[in-house]
Amino acid sequence: MLAAERRDHLLGLLANEGKIVAKDVAASLGISEDSVRRDLRDLASEGLCQRVYGGALPVSPAVVDYAARHAVTPDGKQKVASVAAGLVPPGGTLILDGGTTALAVARALPRDLDCTVITHSPTIAAALLDHPQAELFLLGGRIFKHSAVACGAAAVEAAQNVSADLCLLGVTGAHPEEGLTTGDAEEAAMKRALAARAADTYILASSEKIGTASRFRVLPWAKVSGLITDADPHEAVVEQLKTLGVKILAAD
């Protein structure tokens, strides 16, 4: 099989099966695992897959820059945001992550809601300035422009000194085996710090993130209270998450 044919075959496996197992592909094509790994490295360098131990997974489209992400499944994000906003109790304290789905949550919160919102996103804080009953706490640090959030040691330290009833956390990938992932190591550390300070943590993941993975793990599924998604509840990956005991809040 020519290199171009192998490439098409691998991309087909990602699209149809949601993963590539290098040893299985090598056996089925009668080639070495090293050849498959080289092909996967080439695909990964083009941003067409996310390499993991033993093979590869679909790469998340949510790793593009902040401005471009506003155009990625806006309807799905609005549906997720509507369900997420309904979880915030009157008088409660919310840790709200940054990113475009979290921004949709901020805009979905009732304007007269009496609550406290803790965030490391200047964009989120600005979106809530016209909510007169919302007390705002902005955690500072180095701004990671890709997601318009504060990250780094100063931001993590600030996060360790707050607590909340609920954390609504965004990720770029939500996969049954790889868990919850994002594309930057410091951002992943900040998300862990935020989740650790809330009684409950729910993941905001519109459908394009389900079944995909990014480079850095944020949390395993056992560390979160549930997943809010507009993905088809009968989709294979969603069904697999249910068998793992993940609580799914359908946003439809």
In short:
The chain has helices at residues 3-17, 22-29, 33-45, 66-69, 74-85, 100-108, 122-127, 153-159, 185-195, 236-243, and strands at 20-21, 50-52, 55-57, 93-96, 115-119, 134-138, 142-144, 149-151, 164-170, 173-175, 179-182, 198-204, 216-219, 226-229, 248-250.
What can you see in these coordinates?
- The chain is an alpha/beta fold and 252 residues long.
- The chain is built from 10 helices and 15 strands.
- The protein has helices spanning 3-17, 22-29, 33-45, 66-69, 74-85, 100-108, 122-127, 153-159, 185-195, 236-243, and strands spanning 20-21, 50-52, 55-57, 93-96, 115-119, 134-138, 142-144, 149-151, 164-170, 173-175, 179-182, 198-204, 216-219, 226-229, 248-250.
- Helix 8 (153-159) runs parallel beside helix 9 (185-195).
- The N and C termini lie far apart (44 Å).
